[in-house]
Write a structure and sequence with these properties.
Layout: H1 2-14, E1 23-25, E2 28-32, H2 33-43, H3 45-65, E3 71-76, E4 79-80, E5 85-86, E6 96-104, H4 109-175, H5 181-216, E7 224-227, H6 230-233, H7 243-253, H8 255-277, E8 282-290, E9 297-305, H9 314-358, H10 362-379, H11 385-420
Helix pairs in contact: 2-4, 3-4, 4-5, 4-8, 4-11, 7-9, 8-9, 9-11, 10-11
Length: 427
């Protein structure tokens, strides 16, 4: 176990995670939300792979800047029938031709191709930051789920321990003939029900642990315990924001929306390129001919160009114009989708916030004191088993509902962060 702890600590040190709140307690990795976000950015493999896609497109952009290579052609007489020489070297006994060609792109084709390559790099950046937005949302959402699942398990742990003590006491009293079997059976049945409910939560805890370990790229064998301060749990609500400001932030930070706009821009660039491709390119040529038929050492220059009589790239130009209209419509539709996402997330957060603010937090503390008295009175047989279990069940439900309400509130704020594309809450 000590070796495992040293390996984990060493890995975190290598990746530069120096936050004081990140600790290894026993075999558990304890992380605050900011620590988890930092570890995620450093370690997530999917994020790293997508970031390499940006570098790949930058390489294509560099390639688009390069000029076309020149070409050279050499012709040598292999055999002179008059002098009976193979590959004659004497100038008087052989003819040799050397041609040099250079292709010149006209109508700004090179610059237009470079513009498309730069837009491809922008699109790769859009994909990276949109993936970062999506995975960050998954990280924070899973972090909260895991934290509040642990809190709920604490409720079950406390109830099961208390009820187990009561069952043990009643088992002793039943063996002495002091309590009826039906009361003991009801207690055992409720205890079994609590254990079964806890088991379902443990399954959810396992799923959240696995998801978080994958996002952080840490060993799935190391349990992760999220740490959440009271300030983070009770942060300012959605009431301090307004929809117009959130929509403005979405315009700036939703890289999936930027991606659709960049695609529309690229279609405009493609139309310009297709029109340029209708213009023929120019080929410059220089020729040297030794022992040519005209003079002994012939030097000549030439110019070549295709004649655009039939193929003027008409079909590709028309298709590019149609693609511009299509891409613009898609971008406009997606902008409406983004606005709907922001409005929906904001409305749901308001509803959750209203419910959270109307909940009297003193109710939980009062119920804690009440359940202790109820348990004591039941063991003294001042109340019957039905009343005791009713209080016990009400206590459990109130604790779990308040726990879920806290989680729902933070999740609703994360939904706004996701819809806007940046961290507005719990930065």
């Amino acid at each position: 176990m000590k070796r495992l702890i040293l390996l984990v600590v060493g890995a975190l040190t290598v990746h530069g995670l120096q936050a004081a709140t990140t600790t290894i307690a026993g075999d558990t990795l304890q992380l605050s939300l900011s620590d988890a976000a930092q570890l995620f950015r450093q370690n997530n493999l999917t994020l790293m792979a997508t970031k390499l896609g940006v570098s790949e497109n930058q390489a294509y952009e560099y390639q688009a800047k390069l000029w076309n290579n020149p070409s050279i052609y050499i012709e040598q007489m292999p055999y002179n029938q008059q002098s009976k020489e193979i590959m004659p070297v004497k100038q008087s006994n052989s003819e040799q031709v050397i041609q040099y060609q250079q292709l010149l792109l006209l109508a700004g084709k090179r610059n237009k191709q470079l513009a498309i390559a730069k837009t491809n790099t922008d699109l790769a950046n859009d994909r990276f930051f949109d993936l970062l937005r999506t995975l960050s949302y998954q990280l924070r959402s899973t972090f909260y789920d895991l934290y509040y699942t642990n809190q709920a398990l604490g409720v079950y742990r406390e109830e099961i321990a208390t009820l187990q003590q009561t069952v043990d006491l009643y088992q002793q009293q039943y063996d002495k003939g002091n309590v009826p079997l039906k009361d003991l059976t009801r207690l055992k049945a409720y205890l079994f029900n609590l254990i079964t409910e806890r088991q379902q939560l443990l399954k959810k805890l396992t799923d959240d642990q696995a998801d978080l370990a994958l996002l952080l790229n840490v060993s799935p064998t190391i349990p992760i315990k999220p740490l959440l301060t009271n300030n983070e749990a009770n942060q300012a609500g959605v009431g301090q924001q307004n929809v117009s400001e959130l929509l403005r932030l979405a315009e700036e930070n939703r890289y999936d929306l930027k991606g659709y706009r960049d695609l529309a821009r690229q279609e405009q660039q493609n139309l310009a390129l297709q029109k340029a491709l209708a213009v023929p390119d120019l080929t410059l040529q220089g020729t040297y001919d030794r022992n040519a038929g005209y003079i002994q050492n012939y030097f000549g220059v030439g110019v070549g160009i295709n004649l655009p009589f039939f193929n003027k790239n008409q079909g590709n130009i028309k298709a590019a114009a149609v693609r511009i209209q299509s891409s613009q419509q898609v971008a406009n539709a997606y902008q409406m989708q983004v606005e709907n996402d922001v409005q929906r997330a904001y409305t749901k957060a308001q509803q959750t916030e209203q419910l959270y603010r109307t909940f009297d937090q003193r109710f939980v503390d009062d119920f804690n004191k009440l359940i202790q008295g109820v348990t004591t009175n039941y063991r003294k047989q001042n109340i019957d088993v039905v009343e005791f279990l009713d209080f016990f069940d009400s206590y459990k439900n109130s604790q779990l509902q308040y726990n879920q309400l806290q989680n729902d509130r933070l999740q609703s704020l994360e939904d706004i962060n996701f819809a806007v594309g940046t961290t507005v809450f719990n930065k």
